[in-house]
Specification:
The structure is a homodimer of 291-residue chains. In chain A, 33% of the residues lie in helices and 24% in strands. Chain A is an alpha+beta fold. Chain A folds into 2 domains: 125 residues, PurM-like, N-terminal domain (60s Ribosomal Protein L30, Chain: A, 2-Layer Sandwich), CATH 3.30.1330; 119 residues, Phosphoribosyl-aminoimidazole Synthetase, Chain A, domain 2 (Alpha-Beta Complex). In chain A, the strands form 2 sheets. A 5-stranded mixed beta sheet of chain A has the order 1-2-5-3-4, covered by helices on one side. A 5-stranded antiparallel beta sheet of chain A has the order 7-9-6-10-8, with helices on both faces. Chain A is globular, with a radius of gyration of 19 Å. The interface between A and B is large, with 73 and 73 residues.
Chain lengths: 291, 291
């Protein structure tokens, strides 16, 4: 059997089964980031994302945007845990005939985003490669009381997303999105989400990750799901790389959040369904896969 | 200008110039690992290494050894700071026709080494790639009093290495080496090295890194440099990926170390020269480059 036949999620399951983590690791594989002991009041968050040419971007796309995306994906993972990003290392595989100005622009895109989010890029590694490869390893931190994982969604919770979904590749939004750190921090400070994830594999795939981890089911209000212009429900469910956050709130908190939005006339959060106790109610849609 | 014309070290300099790090980062790019605030008595160490097929290994080499090497390189970086490795994330780019058993064996090699050094591999990322690419991001920790950097070598220091050098690629030792964590911990606990680095670019290249950072020169005792069987001095100076440690000790400590070795009849450390005040005395040899 080869990698193609096994598929992305089969492969991840296979790798996961073999991991044995020390008891002092709070949370290992199976969430947006690893969660590690840190200070008395905080956890350390640790995540990594690898982006490959012709998979996550092409050489025709602006180098600044590619650099932006490489870092933004990892910042989005930190946001999904309720945390703030802090320190990054960037490994990069470079074709030998790549113009140096391309690399300059790539780093410009990364640095601009890093500055915006208070991230220090403190080093990394460079190797020669046939195709451009970028790996970001990112640390972050979160107050223990604010940590949000995937596995605490409860029957009756309302499900929200932070923005319209679908068509991220076609529109180019996967290259320019702003990681939803501000929204996540607002939520953990004021509304105590039960579960949160960033939507990288498509709404269906990532919602199912929450349902599986939380041993719960779902009722989606399909008409309520915010869609990007021209996107069908199917695209919204299965297109990847939206990088919006998906989270669940206890019903009472959900109503308070909607009231707050009505009062302030700011619409950052869209209710799209409810968590149920029926574990069989998964979202039936082909999940986006990078393989 | 393209990457090939700029060269590996030109590229690293260019990237380094553009980095701006927060004041709370103890040490950023320019050492074996980044050094970050952690607990009252310890620093957090953070490093990353990317390995590419046909650069650092080939598909004909045993998968277990490739996995071993991928993690061992990063553990060696932690050792060079005097620290202990703790938590790793592994990103991997996989060709779609790669047999799944290859990936299994790759992880077996990594896990065996991880267990040996108390490292937890807590997650990572997988993508599709034309050639096999492995990126390890590794955290470690070091007691503040034991941290060793590259820039504190002093005129009069003796220079040591932890083992014979040269021919690592030809002999296959670059795939099987044991990172010198035990030696490094013995040294920081008992002999307070002034400067330390792991030899990945060849003795000349890495010794010059210490000299540049410490603004010092060198006198090498060429006849004393331990060589692997069949290696010339030139190969010892410029072959890459030895992964032995290179360190400097105050003359008094150096003599104590030699006495200790004589008394215990254990020869772990080889004196190869002395640090001088004359900054112009660099090691003249073509440094190994991965580009």
């Amino acid at each position: 059997m080869n990698i193609h036949q096994l598929g992305e999620f089969g492969l991840i399951d296979r790798i996961r089964q073999r991991l044995r983590v020390d008891s002092h690791v709070i949370r290992g594989i199976g969430d947006d980031t690893a969660v590690l002991p840190y200070t008395r009041g905080k956890y350390l968050l640790f995540t990594t994302d690898m982006l490959g040419e012709d998979i996550h971007f092409t050489r025709r796309m602006p180098a600044k945007a590619v650099g932006h995306k490489a870092l933004a994906c990892s910042i989005s993972d930190i946001a999904a845990m309720g945390g703030l990003p802090s320190i990054a290392l960037v490994s990069i595989g470079l074709p030998k005939h790549l113009p140096v100005c391309y690399v300059d622009e790539l780093y410009q895109g990364m640095h601009r985003l890093a500055k915006q989010f208070g991230v220090s890029i403190v080093g990394g590694d460079t190797i020669k490669s046939d195709k451009l490869i970028i790996n970001v390893a990112l640390l972050g931190e979160v107050e223990k009381k604010y940590l949000v994982t995937r596995d605490k969604a409860k029957a009756g919770d309302w499900i929200f997303v932070t923005g319209p979904l679908g068509g991220s590749f076609l529109s180019g939004r996967h290259l320019t999105f702003t990681p939803a750190v501000a929204q996540a921090r607002f939520l953990v400070r004021n509304f105590k989400p039960h579960a949160m994830i960033d939507i990288s594999d498509g709404l269906a795939g990532d919602l199912n990750h929450i349902l599986k981890a939380s041993r719960a089911g779902v009722r989606l209000w399909e008409g309520q799901i915010p869609k990007n212009p021209g996107c069908t429900l199917q695209q919204v469910l299965s297109n990847g790389e939206d990088f919006e956050l998906l989270f669940t709130l206890a019903a009472l908190k959900a109503k308070k959040l909607l009231q707050w939005q009505q009062k302030t006339r700011q619409w950052f959060f869209y209710p799209i369904g409810q968590i149920t106790a029926n574990r069989k109610q998964l979202v039936r849609a082909k999940a986006f896969t990078h393989f």
